[in-house]
Amino acid sequence: MTQRPTLRASTRLLAAALAITPLLAACAGGGGVKKDTRYVARDVSTLYRAAQDRLDRGNYGLAAALFDEVERQHPYSPWARRAQLMSAFSYYMDREYTPAVEAAQRFLAIHPGNKDAPYAFYLIGLSYYEQISDVTRDQKITQQALAALGEVIRRYPDSRYAADARLKIDLVQDHLAGKEMEIGRFYQRSSNWLAASIRFREVSEKYQTTSHTPEALYRLTECYLALGVPSEAKKSAAVLGANYPGSKWYERAYQLMQKHAPSA
User: Fold this and answer.
1) Which end of the chain has a smaller Cβ tally under 10 Å, C or N?
2) Could you tell me if 101 and 124 are in contact, meaning their C-beta atoms sit under 8 angstroms apart?
3) Three-state SS for 130?
4) CA dihedral angle for residue 5, residue 56, residue 127, residue 101, rounded to 10 degrees
5) pLDDT the model gives residue 6
6) Which residue positions in the chain have pLDDT lower than 50?
7) CB neighbourhood size of 4 (10 A)
8) In terms of Cα–Cα distance, which of 209, 187, 207 is closest to 198?
9) What would you report as the CA-atom Rg of the chain, rounded to the nearest whole angstrom?
10) What are phi and psi of 82, to 5 degrees?
11) What is the pTM of this model?
């Protein structure tokens, strides 16, 4: 995607809400991930605050590793539950989306009824969403983003996360429609009119609220004329005219029908 319209403010607010404040201790400066996370038995509060300190500094990779260490050293403490979700958040901020998803899923598996479960589901959706590539690539991640964001809406329709999930689903749907259009145009350039029409019809029916629908209806008009079924071409042009009367695609469809099937 060309933009990253994630709600950084809401995620940072959650991080602040989960954090233990005020910070009573900070990590010593310097050293890498291996040095700071090597196994040294530390009391849970010191370890958690060290992780939070790294997160506050923007050292997300080290923060994630330290939150993981909280869970590893103190798996049965209340801190471990918070650390799981903070680990997922830290990985997400570090753009390490696979471990972010895994950490959030682990949190949900162990604490499905926790008050922060809506955010965990939302974070999974965001992690898939951020990986959406351009329409020339495989769209498996796009489908995963759609499913994960839909799960947020289905489970928590009145949550603050559902509102943003709905906006992102609209963008995901538009992206998927763009992929169908790309494939349809390829078939059209190859004069494979039937295969092209199937793709364009998919857009006009399944993704009818997206920005690609007017062009899809025009392309359908072209395909049906090429296939020798002007009555179907007329239907597509009529739907285009009824819903997008001022668009350039309707103007082209009208001219096309006048030229090739004026009596249809």
Assistant:
1) N
2) yes
3) coil
4) -160
5) 39
6) 1-35, 37, 39
7) 10
8) 187
9) 25
10) -65, -40
11) 0.73
Both tokens of 182, joined, read: 């790309």
Q: All domains of the chain, ordered by start, with CATH?
A: 1-131 (1.25.40.10)
Q: Which amino acid is at 250?
A: Y
Residue 246 is encoded by which pair of tokens?
């001022």
pLDDT of 49-83, one tens digit each? 999 999 999 999 999 999 999 988 888 888 988 99
Element (H, E) at 246: none
CA distance 221 to 205: 15
pLDDT digits (tens, 9 = 90+) for 91-104: 999 999 999 999 99
What is the rounded CA–CA span in Å between residue 104 and residue 247?
Answer: 44
Alpha carbon distance, N-terminus to C-terminus of the chain:
42
C-alpha distances (whole Å) from 87 to each of 29, 38, 102, 125, 226 are: 21, 17, 10, 16, 56
The structure tokens 């682990």 sit at 106
Q: Are 59 and 67 in contact (CB under 8 A)?
A: no
Q: What is the mean pLDDT of the chain?
A: 85
